[in-house]
Amino acid sequence: MASAKTTLTPAYLSFSTAFNNQQWGQDAAISFILFVIVILFTLLQRGLLRERRTKPDRGSAAAGGTKESRV
Fold this sequence. Notes:
Blueprint: H1 10-19, H2 24-49
Helix pairs in contact: 1-2
């Protein structure tokens, strides 16, 4: 049996703090910290999953040439 409030999410905690307990300042702090965590994870994911930029071959189709034009 799970104890009370073990599955309380940060978003619901923020909502509950603001509207049920009327603690608007604490709600703003919780929301800001949650926002910072989301931004940090987003930047981390973008950094880890970024494609490596490589220079195209001179004879590749992306560079406007074909393999037949190379001598």
